[in-house]
TrEMBL record:
Lineage: Bacteria, Pseudomonadati, Pseudomonadota, Betaproteobacteria, Burkholderiales
InterPro entries the record matches: AAA-ATPase-like_dom, PDDEXK_9
Domain AAA-ATPase-like: 31-117
Source taxon at top rank: Bacteria
The protein's name in its UniProt record: AAA family ATPase
Pfam families: AAA-ATPase_like, PDDEXK_9
Length: 463
């Protein structure tokens, strides 16, 4: 288009700027980046004198990367401006029509319309769970008829059953879908040999899938979840509730339904049957994904869970011995591993994420504690976490008060307020009702991946 007679000098200068990585990396040119899509659509329409069709794959990836690295709000604001041309406002016209004819976005995690698509009308969303347009479902991969035609074209009909076993099995609405990239890769390689023995299916999916978000969940799962994963690997189905409104901020709570939702949305699982508005039977779609699931999810879970349980055991032992330094030593590496910047910057109530994190950690050491209670009425308020262990004169309780320090707050001051709250609200009274002879009280203050633990003095209860 730099040679186009229909584009002016200013438009060509803009194109040259867009082609310069150094120029586009300068924050001072952010306004030009925000207007990139609108400008390109207008120039394409002007050059070709036709309406433009916009196709955007993996549209959610910039938000996912930004959430992982701590600039989610900035990326969201950039995309809002970037996608401005989708709004039904008066704009450039080509041959009497708007320059943009239609736009199609594809991705793994559905981003809410209110997040980056504000003001966009006629917005139809198709997902693996919800079908608004059957034609869109059929476009998500290869249908069985298209696969048969492809195999005939490449003279590969003899391996139809193998191809189905390895690459079929996805469901979009009511449409059966083969994984397109994997099938193309297989046909490309198999068609170059006449030796049937060399036409062996391979796993092409592993190299194209990311695991960062899934890895964050693995340490929070239970043995029952491991049994469900093994059932899937063995060819079974599991019944789950899916959260179609899952957001990046919501992932910070590591809810079980969100884990299965992510596995479904990222292609590790597919719908076997819809049971209700939110309830589904899920399964692993094919042999390729079964191998990947075993290697990248189930195996990683086993190692991750054992490590997580060991840390949970050490935390409990330290808590029952008044060892605040030991508790801090347990938490420090775990926070670096399991707390993403996304979690730390969640819009949810400040302490909620860390509360859930500690609950999961303590649950992993469940055989060492008794009577675990969360947000329980105690004294004149509600204690964040209490639990006990032992019997008779050795029965000991632990109360944890959790705080999150703001960016400008002194963590030591916040810790002191947590310990003072335990005293002022008389949380220790709950241990009388639990039959404890003594208890330890701790304040835990978090900021991002940092933690401060205080307290630890042994309190004796009445005889």
């Amino acid at each position: 288009m730099l040679e186009s007679p229909r584009l002016g000098d200013e438009e060509k200068a803009m194109l040259r700027s867009y082609s310069s990585q150094m120029f586009m990396r300068e924050l001072s040119n952010l306004d030009l980046a925000e207007s990139f899509l609108g400008n390109m659509i207008a120039m394409l329409a002007k050059h070709y004198e036709k309406q433009v069709v916009l196709l955007v794959d993996e549209y959610d990836v910039p938000l996912a990367r930004a959430a992982e690295r701590g600039y989610f709000s900035e990326m969201r604001d950039l995309l809002k401006a970037f996608l401005g041309p989708l709004k039904p406002e008066t704009g450039p016209i080509v041959n009497g029509r708007p320059v943009l004819k239609k736009a199609v976005f594809t991705g793994c995690l559905r981003v809410s319309k209110e997040s980056i698509f504000t003001g966009v009308n006629n917005f139809a969303a198709n997902t693996v769970c919800t079908e608004n347009d059957p034609a869109l479902s059929a476009a998500m991969g290869f249908t069985p008829d298209e696969v048969n035609e492809m195999l005939r074209y490449y003279d590969l009909e003899s391996v139809r059953d193998v191809v189905k076993h390895w690459y079929d099995g996805y469901r979009f609405g009511r449409q059966d879908i083969y994984s397109p990239w994997d099938l193309i890769s297989f046909c490309s390689k198999a068609s170059k040999t006449s030796d049937p023995a060399a036409r062996v299916p391979e796993n092409y999916w592993t190299a194209t899938s990311g695991n960062v978000v899934i890895d964050e969940f693995l340490g929070f799962l239970s043995d029952a979840d491991a049994d469900r994963m093994q059932l899937l690997v063995d060819g079974g189905v599991i019944e789950v509730e899916i959260n179609e409104q899952l957001t990046y901020a919501g992932m910070a709570f590591h809810k079980l339904e969100d884990f299965w939702t992510i596995l479904l949305f990222t292609g590790y699982l597919t719908v076997a049957e819809r049971l209700g508005p939110k309830r589904f039977l899920l399964k692993i779609p094919n042999e390729e994904i079964r191998q990947t699931f075993k290697e990248r999810v189930l195996a990683r879970y086993s190692a991750e869970n054992r490590s997580f349980a060991r840390h949970g055991s050490r935390l409990v032992q330290s808590a029952f011995s008044g060892d605040v330094d030991g508790m801090a030593e347990v938490l420090a590496p775990l926070l670096r591993t399991y707390v993403s910047v996304r979690d730390a910057q969640s819009r949810a109530p400040a302490e909620n994420y860390y509360h859930g994190f500690l609950s999961a950690l303590l649950a992993s050491a469940g055989d060492q504690i008794q009577n675990f209670k969360s947000n329980i009425e105690a004294g004149d308020g509600y204690a964040d976490i209490v639990f006990d262990s032992g019997a008779g004169s050795e029965k000991t309780g632990v109360v944890l008060e959790i705080k999150r320090a703001g960016r400008d707050e002194n963590m030591t001051s916040v810790l002191n307020s947590a310990l003072a709250q335990i005293e002022e609200k008389r949380y220790g009274e709950i241990f009388d009702h639990m039959g404890c002879a003594k208890y330890y009280a701790y304040g835990l203050v978090f900021r991002g991946k940092n933690c401060l633990v205080g307290g630890g003095a042994l309190r004796m209860l009445g005889s």
